[in-house]
Amino acid sequence: MDLVVLQNWLDNISFAVLLSTMLVYWVGAAFPGIPYLSALGTAGMAVANLSIAALLGARWIEAGYFPLSNLYESLFFLTWGITAIHLVAENMSRSRLVGVATSPVAMAISAFAALTLPATMQSAEPLVPALKSNWLMMHVSVMMLSYSTLMVGALLAIAFLVVTRGQKIELTGSSFGTNGNRHSNYRLQRPQNPEPQIGTTAADSGLAFSEPSFNSTNNGSATTAVLELATVQTSSHHQSQTAEILSPQRLNLASTLDNISYRIIGLGFPLLTIGIIAGGVWANEAWGSYWSWDPKETWALITWLVFAAYLHARITRGWQGRRPAILAATGFVVVWICYLGVNLLGKGLHSYGWFF
């Protein structure tokens, strides 16, 4: 079979598989009692990952260089990275919610690459002189892997915010507590309430209360949850207070998502650092300057600073739960601006020049 025809088949197959996998994960989340859906979703992501790997391999053979020279190739490499990191994260968390978060993004990227990009951008072209370097593989592949890893970590942080329903959950203790013999404590916080009125009960007055601690098993480890929650509802005439308690299962899932998100971002940040350094060395070799404040370079630095702040807040300041999750969600947007927004809209050495 002609390699070009094979590539067309493979990119359409990967899109179809990812679309089906996304539906499987969503149905499994809506109807958790259906058996085998979780395994089917994992299998779908694995098949998509292998299909994209075969696509990139066929592209490599056809063009004679590592397939990261244009937007079509980099989008599929990004999708391959997301599916690969997804499999790692899902194996660590044992939760189908990972696929609920990652599969739509992987599917959308493959759809954009296969169905939206012009045919001229999908075809393999000879490398321009500046790209005829071993740094093409060393720099760009590491950067794309860092983008994939940071995106998956940020998506898990967004899933954490969804699972906790926007409640301010502060986790105390080690961020790695769910996978060892350590403990993580959960504290759900609400704004301070006014003093209770005479004749009201503690629940009516909105006073914080504590439920008895419970233990739940996650990969053989114990997780202790302490709930202190008072939900304040204000009306035009009076204030009434109602209490809401997240289930132990939901709290345990939130703990896992927070933990795995931290670990995945902790893997992606060194990759981003190495990729930026490699890019500086390549830039000096190609253009005689390590750093030229090109729009891509500037946004890569912004991305690095956002995730450096995330890790600093978690490691040094002890942040866990909602606040770092919001910071990671912001990083998800910044990564997309750095990767796609600058490439398509900006004018610089890294621009693909589709719009301008």
Automatic annotation (TrEMBL):
The entry's keywords: Cytochrome c-type biogenesis, Membrane, Thylakoid, Transmembrane, Transmembrane helix
InterPro entries referenced in this protein's UniProt entry, alphabetically: Cyt_c_assembly (IPR002541), Cyt_c_biogenesis_CcsA (IPR017562), Cyt_c_biogenesis_CcsA/CcmC (IPR045062)
Regions crossing the membrane: 12-29, 36-58, 70-89, 96-115, 135-163, 260-283, 298-313, 325-346
Any Pfam family hit: Cytochrom_C_asm
Membrane topology, as annotated: Multi-pass membrane protein
All residue ranges annotated as the Cytochrome c assembly protein domain in the record: 68-350
N-terminal signal peptide: none
Principal subcellular localization: membrane
Subcellular location: Cellular thylakoid membrane; Membrane
Main function: Required during biogenesis of c-type cytochromes (cytochrome c6 and cytochrome f) at the step of heme attachment.
Assembly behavior: May interact with Ccs1.
Similarity comment: Belongs to the CcmF/CycK/Ccl1/NrfE/CcsA family.
Stated name of the protein: Cytochrome c biogenesis protein CcsA
Organism, scientific name: Microcoleus anatoxicus PTRS2
